[in-house]
Design brief:
The structure holds two protein chains of two kinds.
Chain A lengths: L3 E8 L9 H4 L6 H12 L1 E7 H12 L9 H6 L1 E5 L10 E4 L3 H10 L4 E5 L2 H9 L5 E7 L1 E2 L14 E10 L5 E7 L3
Parallel strand pairs in A: 1-5, 1-6, 2-3, 2-5, 3-4
Antiparallel strand pairs in A: 6-9, 8-9
Chain B lengths: L3 E8 L16 H12 L1 E7 H10 L8 H8 L2 E4 L10 E3 L4 H10 L4 E5 L2 H9 L5 E7 L1 E2 L13 E10 L5 E7 L4
Parallel strand pairs in B: 1-5, 1-6, 2-3, 2-5, 3-4
Antiparallel strand pairs in B: 6-9, 8-9
Classes of the chains: A alpha/beta, B alpha/beta.
């Protein structure tokens, strides 16, 4: 059974908006933070994304050829699955999951292999959490109240209890919180 | 110069419905933390909604614990333009609320403690009046309710503590990093 690992980079007020990440995310990068992100990527052999996150990541990363940050090669070669009913074709080694997403993802989980990694993709994660398909939720909480922008946890999410696995303070005030959803 | 401390119970998704801990997460460390916090404070500073809830509840707890005794005996300051008469050792802040809080902070004494008071806390944060923000992050997603952070301001912070308090609850404390 493969694990679905979700890693999110958010502000203290829960914003994960990529448009402002140059202000609240990149300035807080450190070796320790980069190691958390890179370890997650290297422990996975599939990348599962919502359409918005896929469209944001694919052009930039696929243009990188020199294993930037020690993750570009792995990220580019990894199999991707994009959940989208509207996307016509996908590049970047991606397969589109057009319909019955949860069922298809359940099948993927049942296959042998490494972890399935999710970044961003808030709507998808909300569905995965509600369907009990997330094995681990990792939050990198950045020391910034950003004020406005898209929130990772939307109103209307299904209530859920989680178990804290680890909390770790990284450099520059970033905190890693790791949770395991309590099933059932 | 007194220190102004804002202390909140929030869920992982940032909800803080009540200025009370979500039920079902007993932990001696949380109890000790909340106890120390109250006894290091010499006054409570509250928004109207939290004041009204507390002023109804805490007097009924009279004689039940030293925590309740202190909650009842401490002086309170309330940010309200609508309430005419206050009880529970409470005084309304007069005039401009920011100036009134600045004046309180200039006094000598123990910490000024803010519980709950979401709207008012945003005002305090925006005006850089908060010396320490303490969040007890509970391991649950609530999906609905009131969010604690509702302001539109950008506030860079400095992490001062990250500590597990048991029952899966994490204490995060921050200071303002504005102008740093």
């Amino acid at each position: 059974m493969r694990k679905i690992i979700v890693l999110e980079r958010i502000t203290l007020d829960g914003i994960f908006d990529a448009a402002s990440m140059d202000k609240w995310d990149f300035p807080y990068n450190s070796e320790a933070r980069m190691a958390v992100i890179a370890e997650g990527i290297h422990a996975s052999d599939a990348y599962l994304l919502g359409r918005t996150t896929y469209e944001m990541l694919a052009p930039g990363w696929s243009a990188l050829k020199n294993n930037e940050y020690g993750i570009a090669d792995k990220l580019n070669s990894m199999t991707k699955y994009v959940v989208s009913s509207s996307l016509g074709k996908a590049e970047w080694n991606a397969t589109i999951i057009k319909a019955n997403a949860l069922e298809e993802i359940r099948k993927l989980k049942g296959q042998p292999g490494g972890n399935i990694l999710v970044h961003g993709s808030a709507k998808l994660v909300q569905s995965l959490l509600a369907a009990n398909l997330v094995d681990e939720l990792q939050l990198l909480v950045h020391p910034f109240v950003w004020g406005n922008g898209a929130k990772f946890f939307k109103d209307g999410a299904q209530p859920a209890k989680l178990e804290l696995i680890e909390s770790r303070s990284l450099d520059l005030g970033v905190v890693l919180l790791r949770y395991q959803p309590v099933k059932g | 110069m007194r220190k102004l401390v804002v202390t909140e119970f929030i869920t992982l998704d940032g909800m803080f419905e009540d200025p009370a801990p979500p039920p079902g997460y007993p932990s001696p460390d949380i109890g000790k933390f909340k106890h120390d916090e109250l006894f290091e404070s010499g006054a409570l500073l509250l928004g109207r909604v939290t004041y009204e809830g507390f002023a109804k509840y805490w007097p009924t707890m009279k004689g039940t614990s030293d925590f309740a005794e202190r909650m009842n005996s401490l002086p309170k300051f309330v940010a309200t333009t609508t309430l005419k008469s206050l009880e529970w050792n409470a005084t309304a802040l007069e005039g401009d609320v920011v100036a009134a809080v600045e004046k309180l902070k200039r006094q000598e004494g123990q910490n000024i403690l803010v519980y709950g008071s979401g709207t008012f806390a945003q005002t305090l944060l925006r005006h850089n009046l908060v010396d320490e923000l303490r969040l007890l992050v509970y391991p649950l997603i609530r999906g609905k309710g009131k969010r604690f952070f509702t302001g539109e301001d950008r506030l860079p912070l400095k992490l001062t503590t990250s500590r597990e308090l048991g029952a899966g609850v994490v204490l995060l404390t921050y200071e303002s990093a504005a102008g740093a």
